[in-house]
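Hey team,

Filing this mostly as a record. A colleague (T.K.) asked me to run one chain through the structure pipeline before their review meeting, and I want the input and output archived in the tracker in case anyone asks later how it was produced. No errors, nothing strange. Just documentation.

Input sequence:
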Amino acid sequence: MNYLHDGAMTYSFSGKEVKLKSGCFTLFWGANPHRVVSVDGATRITNVYISLSQLLQWSLPPEFIDAVLSGAVVCTQESNPLDHQIVERWAEEQNRNANWRRLHALEVESRLLRLANEGWNTMLRRNKVDSETIVGGKAILHFESMLRFISEHFSSPIGLQDVAQDIGVSKGYAMALFRKLLGKTIKEHLTDLRMYHAKMLLAESDTKIVAIALDSGFGSLSAFYDAFQKQEGISPAAFRKQSLVGQRFHSNS
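Output structure:
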């Protein structure tokens, strides 16, 4: 969860840009590939990190959980002067003892519950996830472990077997749980992370395309081209050219 105090900031979620609203809370699932692509003015932002298990333990409306788990980017409908005071206090007190951290968790839960009940704006819509599939307990811990393993090893030649083995569960269980909570398969999530990494390198470096393909976890250049064509509809070289043109435009404007 982010709070933009002032200025302007734009995120990219797998190539789809979202401009944060100053003075508003913005919430999205950090498991989805994202990065800051532009910052305008004297910008100051506060980030609040919430684990998936913690989010699901809170008594938030199912439709709000659906929005977050589907990968949507949501924000408060309008700015509230009290939010600025709350966030400033969190920042001042964050390094105090565990009692203060527990208090902050309660305040974050309360603020999210208010956001969910007041209504929210959806800044980016993603896949639909049925709230009836939400599970709890050990399954959530398994899911978080899978996400962590994948994010740390996506550039290596891993697959379903490796993910399941890392947390000590069957392939069938891992695949079913992942699809329930993320709305896509482990293979699809791996491809998304690899593509995100590859596009960042294409846009921000002059590294050779074959090296980018291998560094991003694709087993071959042909697999990289196939995935790129399927997701972007153009070749990696064409994507790089478009990115360079866009960078020149922004630098001249």
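Quick notes for T.K.: The radius of gyration is 20 Å. The chain has three domains: 2-124, 135-183, 192-253.
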